[in-house]
Structure formats: structure tokens, C-alpha cells
Amino acid sequence: MESAPEAIIEEPKLAGLLDWWRQEREGRVLPPVASVDPTRIPVSSLPHVAVMDPPNSENRILVRLTGSQLDLEIGINVTGRYLDEFISGETLDYLNGLFETVVEERVPVYSAGKIMLPNKHLMLTRRLMLPFGSETVERVVVGQTFLWVDDKDAGTYALVLNGRGVVDHREYRLPADQAKNTA
User: Fold this and answer.
1) Does 131 reside within a domain?
2) How far is 50 from 67, CA to CA, in rounded Å?
């Protein structure tokens, strides 16, 4: 996984979420879990946010809370469910790998690509995963946006990030200590 150029996050809702995370850190490695409060999360990002636990001893990830737009896009409310109850196969393996990076390295991770969700529709997605805690990661805030595409043309769709096409998935570590995001 490579480090991302700052301007990689072109989605304003996710760029605002990253700015919020950096402000909440106040010079620490991680912002405190107390920051994961709906009254502190940027209002424009809140509907696109899921609050999740890091993997437990059985390597399962609990979704504590989801925003209204995520529920609408996914097609079901996944609050209180484990990720493996509604995502499986390669997508689950991919997401577990992203969580592993966020938790072990205690860094934000940005990813983009295609995803087939429980509603059985293909979507292009942008995802920002942000770690919170003290010495270890205790919560992960995930901001995610979607663009619906026609399933029959699945192989032809790609996202464009910084002028580069992303056909399947691409992920980046984000620098924690950079000035306010200008995306």
C-alpha cells in the first residue's frame, strides 16, 4: 500500500472527515474515542459514516452505528451487525486487510474501487477509514460514498483519482500530520 498525495481525496465529504480527524488528534498519534460523537463529526459527512470496532479475537468487525445515507445505499441497516454477516468473499477479505492496516499501523487509509453490496447492485465507492483510541485503536470511523453503475457494464467502469483510473481497488495510507486538506 502506497502513501497518497494529499489531493487524492476529491470527495468533499471525505476530505472534511479527514480534516476533522486531524483536528481531533491535537498532536497525539490518535484522536480519543470521545471524539467519535455525532455532535463533533462534520454534518455533511455524518450520513456517510459508520462507526466500527476493530477486529475482535475472532477477527470479526462490529458495526456500531451507520449513517442514514449508508443505510440507503447499502439497502439494509447494518447497525449492530458484524461485517461478515452482510459482506463475504473477496470483498470481506479486502476490507479485513484495510482494517488490519488501520489498526496495526494506526493510520488513516483511503481506498476506491468497485463493490457489490448486499442490495446486489454494483457501485463505485470511495472509502476513508480513520482510527481512534489511546494506545491502541478502539474505534474506526469509516466514511464512504457511492456511485451507482449499470451491472451489465461492470467491467468498463472506473473511478478517476488524481487523473489516474482505478478499475478494481486501490488503497493508500494517508499522512497524519499534514496541513488542512485542500481537496
Assistant:
1) yes
2) 6
* Whether the predicted pLDDT of 40 surpasses 80: yes
Q: Is 182 contained in some domain?
A: no
The pTM is what? 0.83
Residue 95 inside a domain? The answer is yes
DSSP assignment of 29-92, as one string?
SS--GGG--TTTS-TTTGGGEEEEPPP-TTS--BEEEE-HHHHHHHSS--TTSBGGGT--HHHH
Strand partners, 82: 62
Q: What span, in angstroms and rounded, lies between the C-alpha atoms of 123 and 117?
A: 8
pLDDT digits (tens, 9 = 90+) for 47-86: 999 999 999 999 999 999 999 998 888 888 999 999 999 8
Range of the domain at 7: 2-173
